[in-house]
Design goal:
Two copies of one chain form a homodimer. By secondary structure, chain A is an alpha/beta fold. Chain A contains 13 helices and 15 strands. Chain A has two domains: 136 residues, Alpha-Beta Complex (Aspartate Aminotransferase, domain 1); 246 residues, 3-Layer(aba) Sandwich (Aspartate Aminotransferase, domain 2), CATH 3.40.640.
């Protein structure tokens, strides 16, 4: 494809105007929205209002007057349609890691006599680590089975199957309905991590019969660095499952200040401490970038962007090996290519203004956020990547220096 | 005392200029900094920089380039001198509730064969609730003993004594060194909740030999609504205690993305998920309001403000009963008075521009933040309170309507 052809695709893209909802720096092609979503244009004013007006002028009164106390449920209601959930099945709280802990512990308590958390090796590390932390302190085993043998491994020792819907490295996507059904046949609960799915691919938790889910606020939901995370519990389980992290904000009546814990009847029972209001305000503005956007068109565009990138890179960068599914229907909205020197290659690419990321040991990872990524971006990114590889620019020793986060 | 005399105290207050570090709304006397600290003048620009420049322009690069990854340790280093700790004994993470869970679980693991968490009835609810959540899922008992019998109740069944240093209702303060020594004599660990202490009264964790502590970022530390909390582990315990919430940010090398958890050697081991960067930025600006402030003068002023309030209220409001220690050395930096109709009295008072808070069932609570509260504020607050009570203004039915947070 030529650059003009890519531009022609942008000209007929029904979502091209949505890019204006984001403030992107000059001279950068940002292909890392799967790690940290870009800044929505409305966010600075929204955060400033929360800081200056709600906190500065409203002070403590804003818990009621500015609706701070309802923010975890209100923001969750904006996430629900992106994940196939009802508003009353979702709440925004804490981090993905902590929400995993809550739901794993609740699932184990709901399946007495079963002691296994079933997952896959190479799952996102925090998912594995949180499960290992539970296993270290209780009669629980973490069983990690390669993904193509997960279904057959679900037996009556398994309390909960914990999988990431879209893999953080390869973008390979599980069939949510099929795996969930297999878990249920064996009497296990199904917990999905949607960190790389929510806002990027169609998700239908209710339709798939999922039990539990968590996900991240700072990737495709554009909530900002370290945004609060979300948590889903299917309505049929709501009254039966309780958080092990029984903080005051999950209490049925926190402001009676009683000595004995009793969980709230709603999803608020999954809150623990005081909600992070600045983070919630930014996340609410992030989710608002989806307002009125046709989701079928959005996800189709994400697939087309990634397809274009795969085609251009494979045509022009023979030293790279595709590490993601070629079939767009089987993957999320990011693409990885393997290269033995992926770290310096990515460093050189970032130096040229194309921001993807490196995932140890050998992956170049590129995220395609259809809200703000254009076909021209993708074409140019492939072009610059080919030039970095062809020129050997990445061999410069300065590209081998690592920061804390690499 | 006359108002002119109160103003004369302000005129000679060595900290009078520090008030300019805060933006306080016109027409309000804010005596609720013990619940939500006021907005530091520098915070809006600091948060805007984090949002617009670091996130918007730096994007994912800011984890390294803007020092986001080090924020939990960097902000903690600013808290350490306020609580008598070394910088490498403190980290900022999650909420007070979640940090209580981490440290209670770690303490129980460190004292095998002991099954009791000893606390007091009427401790801040989330402290009790988090302990109850642990007891519900393990062979652990929560023993709640009135504070005057705590020391004698520490026996060899007690793994950890969990107390709030300054009581959230009465402001009564424990003698940290005495109770800690008693816990140690019985072989128990001592966990202090400093939520109503840090930044308000002298705290010397290291000097008292404390083992563990947590505290809140949004009260006297002025970090904003739902600010992240902090956590302290005495250096001698650091390598021995680990978090049960084994998230990737506590891993020794999170960006190697390995499958097996191994805790970081530093206090970073107490992190769990991705740090909340907007909240950390605001908290850092909040803690900076203490820069260069003489702490002895600060705490002495807090005592003098509260003493003045007690004297004026007792002289002019005979229907109120002091519910806090009269001796400033035995209390924190807030004062509570009991009244059978405390809720409508406080609502009427807030309507007159004096913001304190109500604590069920019968307390009017007033916080004195010496960084920004003047003696004139205190005099006028007492004057308006006397007028609200004398006039019966609080009997208006509209003052009985309750919001979600009351």
């Amino acid at each position: 494809m030529t650059r003009d052809e890519a531009r022609a695709m942008d000209a007929v893209d029904p979502l091209r105007g949505v890019r204006d909802r984001f403030t992107l720096p000059e001279g950068v092609i940002y292909l890392d929205g799967n790690s940290l979503g870009a800044l929505p244009t409305a966010t600075p004013a929204r955060v400033a209002q929360t800081v200056e007006r709600e906190w500065g002028e409203g002070l403590i009164r804003s818990w009621n007057d500015a609706g701070w106390i309802d923010a975890p449920a209100r923001v969750a209601a904006g996430i629900a349609p992106l994940i196939g959930a009802r508003a009353d099945e979702v709440v925004v709280a804490d981090s993905t890691s902590i929400n995993l802990y809550k739901l794993l512990m609740a699932a184990l308590a709901a399946r007495p006599g079963r002691h296994v958390i079933l997952t896959e090796p190479g799952n996102f590390p925090t998912d594995l680590y949180m499960a290992q932390g539970i296993a270290a302190g209780a009669d629980v085993d973490v069983r990690a089975v390669p993904r193509d043998r997960i279904i057959e491994a679900i037996d009556d020792s398994v309390a909960v199957v914990m999988l990431t819907h879209v893999h953080y490295r390869t973008a390979e996507m599980f069939d949510m309905a099929t795996v969930t059904a297999a878990a249920h046949r064996a009497g296990a609960l199904m917990l999905w991590d949607l960190s790389h799915s929510a806002g990027a691919v169609p998700v239908d938790l209710d339709g798939a019969g999922a039990d539990l889910a968590v996900g991240c606020g700072y990737k495709y939901l554009n909530g900002g660095p370290g945004a609060p995370a979300f948590l889903y519990v299917a309505e049929r389980h709501r009254a039966l499952l309780t958080s092990p992290l029984t903080g005051w904000m999950g209490h049925v009546a926190p402001f009676t200040f009683g000595d004995d814990y009793a969980p709230c009847a709603t999803m608020r029972r999954w809150l623990c401490g005081t909600p992070p209001i600045l983070g919630l305000a930014a996340l609410e503005a992030g989710i608002a970038t989806f307002d009125g956007v046709d989701r079928a068109a959005l996800f189709a565009k994400g697939q087309a962007l990634a397809d274009l990138f795969v085609a251009e890179v494979e045509a022009r960068c023979p030293s790279l090996t595709l590490a993601s599914p070629r079939d767009a229907a089987r993957r999320g909205s990011h693409i990885s290519f393997a290269h033995d020197d992926a770290f310096p290659v990515m460093a050189a690419l970032i130096d040229r203004g194309v921001i993807g990321d490196f995932r140890a040991p050998d992956l170049l990872r590129f995220g395609f956020t259809p809200l703000y990524t254009s076909f021209d971006d993708v074409w140019r990114a492939a072009d610059i990547l080919a030039d970095v590889l062809d020129s050997g620019a990445w061999n410069d020793p300065r590209y081998r220096a690592r920061g804390a986060v690499t």
